């Protein structure tokens, strides 16, 4: 969809590097790409402006002009600056002056507050705590039932007073109830609301005044666009938000909204939500989000999907065979079938760092139908032929073509492509041995 | 047999909608108007305009396209007056959206034969609320409506739909949580048919468009409908949250691949977001945007009209969405 920044910079700076000495104008060209990529990642336009100015200054100061690999230098600076904005240090939840710790979740409609209240409760219980949930959303139909249902699922009590009571009272009574029975933390769900809805915002201010929460966490959707900043600023101005939970990070949004919110409000990102299941709550790692905003592949997701399909031992075995160049057509068929279960092939390719450039042209041609004929061809081979693709004579090729319903030309094509592939794998193996990865790979941490 | 055309009601100006959009208008609109309130058309005007479009989530490509188009029109027609340039921009924006609106298929409703609407989208965008709104909308034409609780996954999603069913006095076909959504849909199709319902609206669980298995499930649900009635669902409505950024386009693309989206609803336009992603969707996919959501009540739905949308969200004119 959107070309990644790493691909773009590789294009622009790669071309420029070949012509020799870079000029300041060349750097400006590169900065245009940075700007564009950030905007497409939904970073707020004001934040983009400041950010690009900072990167430019550093780039020119740091002798990108003389650098032999301007691409690496620029991407390095961008990456570092992103992490600097996102906050390199992890910020844990605040401890209360005196227990219980009270955590209140606030945010726009549909951002994921109720689900994350339950996730947070389950997460904190794993740390040995004794949480209780408070159902403060009396407006959205069945919101109380939703929290009750989730509470039952994870076996954590939910305090509610139905939907006739007022949220300020519910919060106060919930807290009192928790104090009496020794629950700690107290996690309060609130109804979603627009930051410009004065009456509804006042309600939150009143809740805050009544119960003095330890944490007020703003729950924000990773897919949010430019308004993320306006929303966060207003919630922060009225309530003094202490942290951010970024939800739906299992989607494919670049998540620039988080960067903007952090840059403008200074509020630290404390957790990310990565799925609909209760345990899909993770600590926030700035470097991962930086990589994602840059569009430098999504190794994380790719690995997770791969893990669902194959064991570690199996992966180890296959990668050894690849590196040694002894990967055969049988292995290929096997992997192809596993990969297909991971999702459309075009999507998967997009997740591989540095693949964008090399594969951009072919990516659209690699359809899932195309793999069907490859499968058919390999399936028409004998085990001996699969192991020794070099030994397939032209009469064998004709037989395979007939068996698979393909033309001999298609069989030839597959065989020669496979040969190329095996050669590349061997090269990668050598590089890995020498500790050099192909260009375009982000620094792995 | 009574054939009736949908979407032909001349709605009276809705005072409530007017009001709910007022807070939105304070934002970008006054800035765009202010932008053109100058003595000459200069470079700064174009730059600032691009900023304002970006700020509205229109996206880099489409913002550049619109600014480029304005430049071209200004040059071609030798426009010197900023007020006329402003009009040219407005036209360009409306035209872009109309490209998609033109793709809207004519929908025929037959009394007593279920017109099936399937509502899809990512998590939390406003699908269930939209269903309530659509139910009220069709009731406004005197049609009988039935709802199907196809979200059997999210906690209390069924209860949520039932609350709306009670409020609107509309029957809801539901199984228990965790049941197969295909089975719910199958039952609902049958029930709607037997009872001679005019409009059957099917809720589905929110799902992220990059979840391969969940997306395939949508295709399956649709095929179950088709086994009943060949051309069902007659409307496949994708709900997009107005606050969504550039990911909205990918959402639309992926859902369209799986279930042939016929219409789009932009929800939560009562907030401060402009839903600028509508322009990218119109340009790239040409899927018509048919409705907008402007609040949390069942009456908070409007038909989408390019002019009204552009005027009220970007230029602060017209009589509300
Ligand atoms: N302000 C505003 N809020 C809306 C609008 N439409 C829906 N909402 C709110 O958004 C929240 C989520 O709406 P739902 O209808 O439950 O969304 P959904 O897509 O069905 O959610 P899931 O089924 O959980 O994926 C609720 O609090 C709704 O009241 C709208 O047009 N404006
Ligand atoms: Mg729903």
Characterize this entry briefly.
Chain A has 445 residues and is an alpha/beta fold.
Would you write up a description of this structure?
The complex is a heterodimer of chains A (445) and B (321). With 445 residues, chain A is of the alpha/beta class. In chain A, 58% of the residues lie in helices and 8% in strands. An 8-stranded mixed sheet of chain A has the order 3-2-4-1-5-6-7-8, sandwiched between helices. The radius of gyration of chain A is 27 Å and the shape is globular. Chain B has 321 residues and is an alpha/beta fold. Chain B is built from 12 helices and 10 strands. In chain B, the strands form 2 sheets. Chain B has an 8-stranded mixed sheet, sandwiched between helices. Chain B starts with a strand and ends in a 6-residue tail after the last helix. In chain B, 53% of the residues are buried. At the A-B interface, helix 2, helix 6 and helix 9 of A face helix 3, helix 7 and helix 10 of B. The structure holds guanosine-5'-triphosphate and magnesium ion (MG). Guanosine-5'-triphosphate sits between chains B (121, 123-129, 151, 154, 157, 206, 267-268, 270-271, 293-296, 300) and A (109-110, 140, 192, 194).
Give the tags.
heterodimer, A: 445 residues, alpha/beta, Four Helix Bundle (Hemerythrin (Met), subunit A), Rossmann fold, 434 Repressor (Amino-terminal Domain), 8 strands, globular, disordered C terminus, B: 321 residues, two-stranded antiparallel sheet, 12 helices, binds guanosine-5'-triphosphate, binds magnesium ion
What distance separates the N and C termini of chain B? 33 Å
Main sheet strand line-up of chain B: 5-4-6-3-7-8-9-10
Give the C-alpha Rg of chain A.
27 Å
| Overall average pLDDT of chain B | 89
Gross morphology of chain A:
globular
**What structural class do helix, strand and pairing data of chain A support?**
alpha/beta
Mean pLDDT of chain A equals: 85
Specify the number of helices of chain B. Answer: 12
CATH class of the largest domain in chain A, please?
A: Alpha Beta
Judged by helices, strands and strand pairing, the structural class of chain B is alpha/beta
